[in-house]
């Protein structure tokens, strides 16, 4: 499976001729959606789903959009494409085995309602948790994309999350709010403390998993 990292939390997965796009949000490049056979969205926040860009893509090529039921409230006309998923499911999306995890977004502040969030494990090797630090306990994750910075996160908690998942390698996710100074500091700290092969990929970088 080929994986292209786009800005912030967006991944494009290519497997046996099929293309899956995860979390094409407002900080990500719209071209990530080009030729997609399916879209998977972890939750409804605009940095994870750019509704206007997704709607335009669906007008060009209708494809299923997998995500929590709450996503329907923000998708507008694109909600017709929504395939609702819940935690604990095993499904096949465009030929790729997918397992779903979690259920809730991490707490941002007690005054802000907690919304649903679904983490996705692809082909039992690549895990995209969305905006939560839920650890799968029924599989050994090979490649983890870890949300390294967010209003809801704390560095020590993310380090412990990576250690708990214990992947062979981890890549940075959810990093668009950082400038060069912050990226440099966190890259050094995660490399030193995550106890795995940690790296941050520039947008557009492609890897094999």
Care to describe what's here?
This protein has a single domain (2-208), classed as Ribonuclease Z/Hydroxyacylglutathione hydrolase-like (Metallo-beta-lactamase, Chain A). The chain is 19% helix and 30% strand. It has four helices and 14 strands. The chain has helices at 51-60, 72-75, 155-165, 180-193, and strands at 2-5, 11-15, 18-22, 38-40, 65-67, 82-84, 90-93, 96-104, 116-122, 126-128, 143-147, 169-173, 197-199, 205-208. Strands 6-5-4-3-2-1-14 form a seven-stranded mixed beta sheet, with no helix packed on it. It is globular, with a radius of gyration of 16 Å. The chain starts with a strand and ends with a strand. The mean pLDDT is 97.
Describe how the helices and strands are arranged.
Layout: E1 2-5, E2 11-15, E3 18-22, E4 38-40, H1 51-60, E5 65-67, H2 72-75, E6 82-84, E7 90-93, E8 96-104, E9 116-122, E10 126-128, E11 143-147, H3 155-165, E12 169-173, H4 180-193, E13 197-199, E14 205-208
Parallel strand pairs: 3-4, 4-5, 5-6, 10-11, 11-12, 12-13
Antiparallel strand pairs: 1-2, 1-14, 2-3, 7-8, 8-9, 9-10
Protein name: MBL fold metallo-hydrolase
Organism: Micromonospora chalcea
Domain Metallo-beta-lactamase: 7-174
